[in-house]
Design goal:
Blueprint: H1 2-8, E1 13-16, H2 23-31, E2 34-37, E3 47-50, H3 57-64, E4 69-72, H4 76-90, E5 95-98, H5 104-110, E6 116-119, H6 122-126, E7 131-138, H7 144-154, E8 158-163, H8 169-182, E9 187-191, H9 197-207, E10 213-216, E11 232-237, H10 243-255, E12 260-261
Helix pairs in contact: 4-5, 8-9
Length: 274
């Protein structure tokens, strides 16, 4: 959508925050003319692309009042979480968003609701005051395991719990594949942006299963010393990591002399937006 905007719509071009959490992609789009703006307040003309993590409804309304063209590239799974959080809030449920405090997606989900609490762990959930009812949605890249633990904890804090499982199926499948692959290899390499939440979860999942797990953004970060004595090396990538970058990492690993190479753990491209 951002590429089409650059080709077909009037400039100048901006995204509100980084379009996706992958530095290589963001830099490539910047070279093509897509700037990154911190806020809508400083933009008075041109085309604004809403990042895949979404923004709060208030920012959308502010943008519509300006003479700018909006391209909404919010991931549909994120949009669903936003709508459900708003629905719960309007229905009178204080909303709990299970996610990473400060993450742009979480801020976008919480932005359209009142009485919102952001909870990242079951320990945080247990510290909430007891109430009559709570509504729950999740950051799409949260693991189902984390969501389940938080929900179990919240059952002790509310008499009525309305839970919407808004975790992304594609992300869950990627995590399951990474978990399975990590159990079969000597070294695991996770490829993705350092600021990518779903890449961080892949790294955590793999690190729990194979101590020799490494996180890189590009092939230049790969070190031959990582693979000494290794027979099988696994490679997986975050949702916003381009296939080109993953292939470059896999080729660099092969060039180090790792004796066998498994195909990178990937999932279908459908809905791989964040």
């Amino acid at each position: 959508m951002a590429q089409r905007a650059l080709e077909e719509l009037p400039g100048p071009f901006y995204t509100l925050g980084e379009l996706i959490h992958n530095p290589q992609v963001v830099r490539d789009l910047e070279r093509k003319g897509l700037g990154v703006a911190a806020a809508i307040s400083g933009i008075d003309k041109g085309t604004v692309v809403i990042r895949c993590h979404g923004v709060s409804p208030g920012i959308i309304e502010e943008a519509k009042k300006k003479k700018v063209r909006l391209v909404d590239a919010t991931c549909p799974f994120v949009k669903k979480a936003q709508l459900l959080a708003s629905f719960l809030s309007k229905a009178g449920y204080p909303v709990v968003v299970v996610g990473d405090r400060g993450h742009p997606e979480v801020e976008a989900i919480a932005g359209g609701s009142r009485k919102v609490k952001i909870v990242g762990t079951e320990e945080e959930a247990l510290r909430l005051k007891k109430v009559k009812k709570l509504g729950v949605v999740a950051q799409t890249t949260q693991s189902f395991e984390t969501l389940s633990k938080v929900v179990n904890a919240l059952m002790t804090r509310a008499q009525e719990l309305y839970v919407c499982n808004t975790t992304c199926e594609t992300t869950s499948r990627r995590q399951a594949e990474a978990r399975k692959l990590a159990e079969k290899v000597d070294v695991m390499v996770v490829v993705g942006g350092r600021n990518s939440a779903n890449t961080a979860r892949l790294f955590d999942i793999c690190r729990k299963r194979v101590r020799r797990t490494h996180w890189v953004e590009t092939a230049d970060e790969v070190k031959s010393s990582w693979f000494r004595g290794a027979v099988h090396v696994g490679v997986t990538g975050g949702a916003s990591t381009p296939d080109r970058v993953i292939r470059e990492v896999a080729d660099r690993i092969t060039s180090t002399g790792a004796s066998k190479r498994r195909a990178p753990s990937r999932v279908p491209r459908t809905q791989k937006n964040h």
